[in-house]
Amino acid sequence: MTSISQLEYAIAVDTHRHFARAAKACHVTQPTLSAQLAKLEDEIGVILFDRSAQPIVPTSEGLAILSQARIVVAEFRKIAAIASGAANEVAGELMVGVIPTVAPYLVPLFLEDFSRAHQKLKIDVREMTTAQITEGLAREIIDVGILAIPVEGINFSTRFLYREPFYLYANKSHQLAQRKKVKGDDIDGKDLWLLEEGHCLRGQVLQACQIKGRKPALANVRFESGSVETLKQLVRQGIGYTLIPHLAIGEDDDVKVISFEEPMPARDIGLMFRREQLKKPATEALEKSIQKMLPRSLTKLAKDAIGLAVRNQNEQN
Amino acid sequence: MTSISQLEYAIAVDTHRHFARAAKACHVTQPTLSAQLAKLEDEIGVILFDRSAQPIVPTSEGLAILSQARIVVAEFRKIAAIASGAANEVAGELMVGVIPTVAPYLVPLFLEDFSRAHQKLKIDVREMTTAQITEGLAREIIDVGILAIPVEGINFSTRFLYREPFYLYANKSHQLAQRKKVKGDDIDGKDLWLLEEGHCLRGQVLQACQIKGRKPALANVRFESGSVETLKQLVRQGIGYTLIPHLAIGEDDDVKVISFEEPMPARDIGLMFRREQLKKPATEALEKSIQKMLPRSLTKLAKDAIGLAVRNQNEQN
DNA sequence: TAAGTAGATAGAAAAATTCTATATGATGAA
DNA sequence: TTCATCATATAGAATTTTTCTATCTACTTA
């Protein structure tokens, strides 16, 4: 008889990628875990892990089973939650992954309010790329991600949070700084500071400016940075310009922030979590808190003024 | 330790409303079932059944637990199905709800292919408003909805299917018919045929044209219809124009179909289902079939040409 | 009140899970 | 090569859980 504990052992091995540590996490000895996992594999007729690899990895067939096992265990635990009346309680621990081009601007907005409102919840926020968020959700290392949607992935669900327009951020000495408004065509890549490869915002910016088809090597792009704040700093200190999302607008003297013509290019930011939603109450509370604390400057933007939600398939994070 | 069998016993008692018969169905003796059920009730701290009634009935608290127990057991059984390779079998019954402004154009595209590809699946498609789809999913009357996303609703998940631009559909005699391209500003509502209230497309069109703030009574709008085909017929037969989604483009002589300037206004169409996704294989097969059968005229549209995904919060369907 | 029905309880038997101790096998450093 | 070291598997005893048979209690109804 395959049991819930057997599933838990398998999940722990998937999470820790190490029998002894997985066993410790399950409060059993390593032989117990080994034996039960072997029994599980025997019963379902599928080898879940490739023990020859170091560290061990799930087999391709094992991946599907493990994903389903996580669902079963999550649903199983809900029974106790329902029974104890804690099903709708916001408590426990919530691990949140946030992409780097959102984190520094969004997290300070909601974190204090959210933490105050839910004292029983231990909150852990970390900056992660889109790829890390996807992987982290799959292995239950994080509970929820905040990233640019849509994202591919059959095992995940997303919730739209807000649509965030892009703005031109140009040094006052730059010719574009004289403009009242700009459009994508105005930006040909000359003097444009970009985030380095791996940031989804990079792809979104390239799309917004309709610079495409010459993805890997943009001869006319002069430097690539790892954070939006660095790009802003570069613009502040010299020539050139960049594109920044709405929440990254600050108050800078030597710099002009110029809107795009309507409909403004934008990206959609949303929550992402596993389909079975292990921490539903906390996730919903998080969504509410973010919605509540979003600046009016963003939420009050006319719905028809921001239209373009960039979908970039290739670049991630 | 609460076990899967304990849940099965409880479910059997709920189904048979009789301990001895439930025990027989579970291939155990009545004392075994009695003891395990008592153990379960003790462990979760909830009395599941009122034994004083004849036949026994679940307690009110028991109902929620039993519902969750059914989910756990169903998900648990999927493990064996996945392991044996039968998990991806598309079989059983799939009830689909489709909004009226999508149904007549999309359903004929995929239904034959889908039905041929999955002979073991009984397919039932019906036209429903967004509100009916939401309600139907919640009450498990339908398994999946096809509608304009995003949609509010915490218990549901959506899958993006395609972004569908809008086009101006104008009688050749109309002045706008001379234009090569149009933009939202060009359309002030004069001579514009609209769907009646309750169709989400109505709100999407109003947004795309940036006609807003005078929602309830548009003095300059002359007539309101219940279907896109009726609007097209009106345009074909006389003066005026309307906005139609990409898939509604036909081949009409007296009419011009005019693109919007880029980025074209558009709506997102997606699948919607319960978070638990009881019929995953069939739903995924449906998604695949739709993606496969979407006309290239839609899928080949440059990603950066269609940008505007209208989000209308108020109007439904 | 006796017979019948439904579910609970007791105690033994069977099955399963877990433990400690140890074996095997792979990797890497002396 | 050889000897640690680390990671997982195996063996066998101890413990826990589940199930069984037999029987009891409570309630109904003829």
Task: Describe the protein's architecture and organization.
2 copies of one chain form a homodimer. Chain A is built from 10 helices and 13 strands. In chain A, the strands form 3 sheets. In chain A, strands 3, 4, 5, 6, 7, 10, 11, 12 and 13 form a 9-stranded mixed beta sheet that branches. A two-stranded antiparallel sheet of chain A has the order 1-2. The first copy, chain A, starts with a helix and ends in an 8-residue tail after the last strand. The C terminus of chain A is likely disordered. Chain A is an alpha/beta fold. The first copy, chain A, binds a DNA duplex (30 and 30 nucleotides) through helix 3.
Q: Briefly, what is this?
A:
The structure is a homodimer of 317-residue chains. The first copy, chain A, has 317 residues and is α/β, with parallel strands linked by helices.
How are the SSEs placed, and which strands pair?
Two copies of one chain form a homodimer.
Chain A: H1 4-16, H2 19-25, H3 30-44, E1 49-50, E2 57-58, H4 60-83, E3 92-98, H5 103-117, E4 121-127, H6 130-138, E5 144-149, E6 156-171, E7 181-182, E8 194-195, H7 200-208, E9 224-225, H8 228-237, E10 241-245, E11 255-260, E12 264-274, H9 280-293, H10 296-299, E13 306-309
Helix pairs in contact in A: 1-2, 1-3, 1-4, 2-3, 5-9
The first copy, chain A, binds a DNA duplex (30 and 30 nucleotides) through α3.
